[in-house]
Amino acid sequence: MKEEGLRYNFREYVFKSDINKRSPFQKKQDLKEINKLYDQFQPQYVFVFDDEAAELVVNSLKKRDTKIFVSGVNKEVDSLSWYEPTDQNVYLLLERFPFAESLKLLKKLNQDIKEVTVLTSANPTSKVIHNQLLDFFKTCGKDCHGIKHKESLVSSSWSDWKKKINHYKGKSKAFWILVPWS
After folding, report:
1. Helix (H, G, I), strand (E, B) or coil at 2
2. Chain segment 91-146, per-residue pLDDT in tens
3. Rounded CA gap, 182 and 175, in Å?
4. What's the distance, CA 69 to chain centroid?
5. Closest listed residue to residue 152, CA positions, set 180, 104, 116, 112
6. Is the dihedral of CA 166, 171, 173, 179 positive or negative?
7. CA angle 159-102-91, nearest 5°?
């Protein structure tokens, strides 16, 4: 985005690929193209969405005279290879999930719920969020709003999920479907 008087001129570059499945050569080519676009447009602001996209571009772009806004950051700040707290031109919008509020609502909807089983897919984002949920349960003493974490199933297979759902039948159990895409 480039500021022009009181108006803003937006240009959008959509990076439509799974960064985790790209080879180092492909990533290098992508970065060359992004830097070329940057040189052509000279934006004052760059908006990056998601951890993986930030991992690709932020280190290269933060050396330039532009403000970089990164949204949808699931990972913990201290684990980001592309971010330093001393960065003067990189701004983070952390994506966090309202675990306590969700459990409180679940308990309100059904007082009989005592346990929750997590069903989540096997992808990098799911892993990060799942670990945050497990950490949350640890800080609650594994019992939050009268609901305990029973177990987790990490799989991208609907048949695995279906078996788990059919295995647990009863009013005192609930399933937390967490980031089910892969």
Report:
1. strand
2. 998 887 778 888 888 888 888 888 899 999 888 888 888 998 999 898 887 568 88
3. 19
4. 15
5. 116
6. positive
7. 100
Enumerate the β-bridge partners of residue 75.
none
**Dist. CA 116–CA 136, nearest whole Å:** 13
Residues found in the chain: 182
Asked if 91 contacts 148 with a C-beta cutoff of 8 angstroms, the reply is: no
Distance in angstroms (rounded) separating the CA atoms of residues 89 and 160: 45
d(CA 29, CA 171) in angstroms, rounded, equals: 53
Q: Mapping DSSP to helix (H, G, I), strand (E, B) and coil, where does residue 34 land?
A: helix
- The b-or-e profile of 7-33 (16+ CB within 10 A means b, else e) is eeeeeeeebeeebeebeeeeeeebeee
Q: What is the amino acid identity at position 78? A: D
Burial 60-79 (b: 16+ CB within 10 A, else e): ebbeeebbbebebbbbeeee
Helix axes 24-41, 51-61, angle to 10 degrees: 60
Report whether 87 contacts 62 (CB < 8 A).
yes
Q: What is the pTM of this model?
A: 0.64
Sheet holding 67-73, edge to edge: 45-49, 67-73, 90-94
